[in-house]
Every structure is written in C-alpha cells, then in structure tokens.
Amino acid sequence: MVSMPWVYVGIMFQGFTPEHWCRDSGVSQIRQSCGWNLMDARKITVPLVNTSGVLVHSQCEQYDLDWNNTGLTCDNPESDLTDAHRSKAPMTSCIEGWEYDYEGRQSFVTEFNLVCNDAWVVDMYQATLNVGFLVGSITFGYLADRFGRKTSFLMSNLLNGVAGILVAVAPNYISMLVFRTIFGFAVKGGWMSVYVLITELVGVEYRRMVGVLLQMFFSVGILILTLIAYLITDWRWLQVAFTVPYFIFLSYFWLIPESPRWLLSQNNSTKAKEITEAIAKENKKTLYKNIETLRDDNAQTSTASFLDLVRTPNMRKHTFILMFNWFTSAIVYQGLIMRVGIAGGNVYIDFLISGLVEFPAAFLILFTIDRIGRRLPFATANIVAGVSCFITAMIPDSHFWVKTVVACIGRLGITMAFEMVVFVNTELYPTFVRNLGVSVCSTLCDIGGIVAPFLLYRLATIWLELPLIIFGAIACIAGGLVLLLPETRGVRLPETIDDIEFPNRHKENHPKSQQLTNLLPTDMTTNKETTIV
C-alpha cells in the first residue's frame, strides 16, 4: 500500500511542467556574450501576454526578430528594446523548442517537450493509468476468484516489475503511454488482491479498522514520495524507484498464506484448516475439533447480475448515489493533488503539507463512525471539501498561507469521503450482490480518474481557479446525496433485496445476521477458551 501513491500521484513529479518559454538561438548567443542567466534573458526577450487578467511571459509565442539586428546591448537592454518596439514586433509560435526553468532536473515534459499544443499528452499520462486501473480491477477480480488471492498477487507483481521498467526506458511518449496503461493494469490488480487477502485473513470485527489503517499507509507513501522525488532528479530513475518495491514483494511471496475463505470456496478445506490452525497457534488460540467440517457461511449462493442493482427503487437509489460518490471522490482527490503542481510555490513543500493533512482523516473516521454514524460524517466530509474548494478559489494569491490552510481542509475532507465510501458501499448491499455492487460502483472511481487530469489542466488554462469551482460543486452535490442514504450504524448487514426495500418489515423476522461471523469467530474472554469455527 505504501508504494501505491507513488504510481497514483507520481505524475506530480514525473510530469511536472516548469516555467518555460520559446528557445531562440539568437537570444542564446546574446545571453552567452552578455553573461545573462535564463531569467534575465526571458525578462528582456520574451513577449508578455494577458492570462486571466494578468500579464505573464508567453510560454508558446516569441518575437519573430533577428536579434543581431535589433541593436540590443548588454548594458541597458530594456532601453534598447522599448515597449513601443515590442508592440510593433511580429510574433510567431515556438520554432526551436523551449527553455525550461528546471535546472538539474528532468521530467518527461521537459524531455519530450510536452507543452503548448502537446500539453494534453500530460493529461493522457494520468488518464491511461486509470484506464489500466479500470481494466485491471475487472480482470484481476476474476483472476483472484478463479486462481486465488496469492497467485493473482504474484502475477500482478511480475507484470508490475516488467511494465514499470518499460515505462522507465520508453523511447517516446507514445510507447510511454502504452506501458503506463499496462503498469496501471497490474498495479490495480495487485492492490485489489492484497486488500482482499488482508481483509479475509483478519476477523470481521477488525476489518473496518484494518481498511482504515491500510489507507493510512497510503498517506505514509505520499510522504515518502516527496522525499524520493526530491532526491531523484530524473523522471526515468524516479520510475525505477517506483518499480523496485514490486521486485521486493516477490522476495517474500512464499511467506504469504492463501485466503482460507477462498480455499473454502474452492472446497479445499484441508488447506484452509492448515492455514487457520497456524493463525490460531500464532494467536495462542485452540480450534474446536469440528474444524474438519469448516465451511464458508458467507459464500455466495445466488447468481447476481447488474439488474439486481437497479431493478428496485432503494437499490437503484443506493447504486446511483454510491456511483456518483466514487466518481466525485476520485476527481476531487486526484484534482486537488495534481493542482499542487500548477499552483506555483515550492512543489515539494506544498505536496508534503497536503500529504500530512491526510492522517487526521483516518482518526476522525475511527472516532465518529461508531459514535455518530456513517451518513453524517460521510456527507459532512464531502460538503467540507466542496466548500473549501469554493473558498480557496476566492482567496487572492497574496494571502498564500490562508489559501493553503483552506485547501488543506478540503484535502482532509475529500480524503475522509474517499475512505468512507469504501466500507459504506459494502453495508448498503445484500449478501448475494455485495461484491458485484462494490465492483460496479468502484469502476466510477477509475472513470473519475480518467476525467480528472483533463478537467484540471484544460480548465486551468482558462482560469487557474476554475477547476476548484467544479470540484466544489460536485463535492457539495455528493454530500447532499449521501444524506438520502439510510444510516447503517448498529444495523445488521442486509441479506436480501427485501431487507433493502423493506428494512422495517424484516427487522424482527430475521435472526441475528451471520454476516458478522468470523472465519475464526471468538467467543473467548481468556486465552484458555477455544475458538469456534
């Protein structure tokens, strides 16, 4: 989980777009002879353009002049090239490439000159990753059920290692995008396999906590990413660093047990018993003798279809609201992270600060969900994120720290919302369709990830704060929709569609749900007591 954000938001550093302007060989000659630095030369020779009401140096146009015949001198160049001369000078698009204010570092943007008319390719770098995520989640979902969690973890890591290195050695941006898609395909598959395996190995009562803790390790990965990106200055070597953990994972592959639940679904109770006994021994517990008849009580007994998610009113409402929240969480979360790279300031410090604010999210969730419930914190998190985006867009750049604090509050809100949608999703579907419901709804997360870079980077060219307005609007809508969902705190997990459509009717008719029964449910108060299976 620590390495997941390196891939997910590594574009912040691998695809960083620094200040740039047209390269002109005539200007380069004058700069060398006069001893000017890059910024001095830009100030004198690069035209100013109006962007969102502010005059800035053009990034995509240059003066169409023969600089050797302009009479420009080293001593007083601004007097030699007056505003009157500049206003009459012809303009043209960049002919000889670009200069970058990124000395000592290289992103794939600076290597392949992905600026101006080719800037959209940077959007594609993130979009293709999410395309890989989308296909990988579907494919590895099947592979994990067909061949096991452990085997799919092995396959994903092998593919991760190969695809990651191929991205690092890609000769051009077309091949880079192809390999990036494959990389995303494998990374998402590995993440899914590990997440399912871990949650199936622990007791049901601990799964929610384990899920939140896994998200905390994601936040730790963001902090580590800042350090790695600061120390490694070339995007290709940075990609190698992102890939190394997948080779490390392979070194302890044989130490990871298979999921006993999956083994039970394959009628391999002997191996499931062996692993379960090892777990019990490690925890100083004793299994009853009826371990020989171990069965998976939560195994799916009915065939689920997509129509089950939308056929009845409440199921349909849950499905569309959850899909929209997955979509919103992905767009706003990725958008706020990637915005750090275009907002100005020190990208490393800003990214570090924004990563630190994710940690309180996990503690706030653990503190509120069993005291207040799911619905109110979930809705509040979305609304706080949305309102923060609106306020951040309205604060002038001169109030930098105020703007930063408000933006961080928004990041905290959307992080909470993103983490909560995962387990709220599982609590709003009946048993036989639960896995399908989570899979279908979470695909909107990947679709949101495909949309996010285009929404951010293209709208920012119109007005830097325009993406924040869009993020704020959809986050507030998502929060309002969450209030239409039922509260699930203290409510047994639904077993049938009737439990969703008529919750009060079936409240007394069903015995206590077996959904909370662990593979190793504990009726113990001391270590001397046994574990019932």
Report the span from N to C terminus.
30 Å
Helix content: 55-70%
Distinct helical segment count: 23
Total separate domains: 3
Query: How much is the average pLDDT?
Result: 83
Instruction: Examine the coordinates and then state which fold CATH places here, giving the name of the CATH topology of the largest domain.
Output: Growth Hormone, Chain: A
Characterize the quaternary organization of these chains.
single chain
- What would you say the CATH architecture of the largest domain is? Up-down Bundle
Q: Could you state the CATH homologous superfamily of the largest domain?
A: MFS general substrate transporter like domains
**What does the largest sheet look like?**
2 strands, antiparallel
Strand order of the largest sheet: 1-6
Helix-strand category: mainly alpha
**CATH class wording of the largest domain:** Mainly Alpha
What proportion strand?
A: under 5%
Radius of gyration: 27 Å
Number of E strands: 6
Low-confidence runs of at least 5 consecutive residues: 510-533
SSE order, one letter for each helix or strand:
HHEHHEEEHHEEHHHHHHHHHHHHHHHHH
Shape type: elongated
Explain what this protein looks like in three dimensions.
This protein folds into three domains: 161 residues, Growth Hormone, Chain: A (Up-down Bundle), CATH 1.20.1250.20; 71 residues, no CATH class; 188 residues, Growth Hormone, Chain: A. 63% of the residues lie in helices and 4% in strands. The chain contains 23 helices and six strands. The strands form three sheets. It has a two-stranded antiparallel ribbon with strand order 1-6. Helix 8 runs antiparallel to helix 21 and helix 11 runs antiparallel to helix 17. The C terminus is likely disordered.
